[in-house]
Amino acid sequence: MPRCKICGNKRNFACSFAPTAAPTANPQPYGLAANFDNQGTLLDMECMGASLDDAQAAFENQSNCFDICTNCGGNDIVW
Hints:
Elements lengths: L2 E2 L7 E4 L16 E5 L5 E6 L4 H9 L1 H4 E4 L7 E2 L1
Antiparallel strand pairs: 1-6, 2-3, 2-5, 3-4
């Protein structure tokens, strides 16, 4: 189960290697984000600029891909 060591978040994480959407006045901060349940099971992913190949790679290797806490922005994630 993912958990941010800084703020304790266990639900919302992002992928640092997925590109963000095209530059706009107010762009999304992450190209790929995921939501997890209380047991650490992936519930859904939001592709905001990431390709489907990037999303598939993240799904297959969650512990290496979802490495940013979307609550505090920290990258000290424990799996």
